Amino acid sequence: MEELEHLEAGLAEFEHLTGQPLTILGLDGIFDFRQARRLFTPQRASHKKIGACAAIFSEHCIEHCRHRQTRRCREAAGPFVSECPFGIRQLVFPLRERLVHYGILFLGAWQNGTPPDAELPEKFRREYAKLPPMAPEQEKQLLLLGELCADGVLHRLRARGLLADTPDFRSARIRDFLQTHLAEPVGLPDLAQELELSSSHTSVLVKQLFGCSFTTLLQRIRVDAAGHYLAGTELRLHRIAELCGFSSEFHLSRVFKQQTGLAPSIWRKR
Fold it and tell me: Is the pTM for the entire model greater than 0.85?
């Protein structure tokens, strides 16, 4: 069995044994565009396999699970419990090695015991009602098991040479800064100020760490974010352009096709 298929089979077995869905998100597409192929299946990298999440999926979900939890993972000493704006609780495990944060492993989906707002879609309220409450003893057990699983995933990727990114705190800090200011007209001087370096030194550092210019790196991160919005929401293209820092929907379409080879409309359909 091919290595990635073996890894996916192990994750599926973990889900079967725990009875809980497992999702893995990579920071800045580290499990996607840096590889010749994706390390994880689209289903593994999406919460939409959870009925309640699929029924309510929107830009708020991406902001909470991808961006807000990434920031929390950088500050957390270990795993923690997260609750989204719609009342879905999950266990969150930082995929971290030394000081570098590569992504997040989410385990489970529980309700918080409070009925959802009546104004939310009926389909979501039906799916939410199917979610079980989280028992304290179950939470304790799954925090232990999930942490072992998260450590095992990262170790396997590193041991098999599948994680093609050298651990470097500076690269993680750069990605985090650019993602945090994605919708803003951020430039090289802004990043230099954040790193307390000169613009010329920062430019060289970005080239060394990422193998491309600052402009190209920023475009990659913005295109990656746009791809998530296209795949996971019904937002109009001009709104996605605003959220991802493009000057217009036409600018987004041009850069997106340059980076991915596909027009945003085709990407969304696929």
Answer: no
